[in-house]
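Input/output pair, single chain:
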Amino acid sequence: MPTQLTQKPNAFSYAALVFWSFAVVLVSAISTNIFSETSLNDNLAIGFMVFALIGLVFSAAIILIKSVLEICNP
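Output:
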């Protein structure tokens, strides 16, 4: 009798989507901060960088916790 996989290979991961969304926001905020010429754009970019870094940390932690739970609880 063949064994069945517990996870679908084409399963959509919302945590990964959130992680990459925060990564895109972080890269765009860094580029805005580097290439902007006004103080308002610099301040907004720094604010978005802080928001994106916090989001990256939390989403990476969620992905890590999910992967550990999948390994430990088959």
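The mean pLDDT is 84. The first helix runs from residue 14 to 35.
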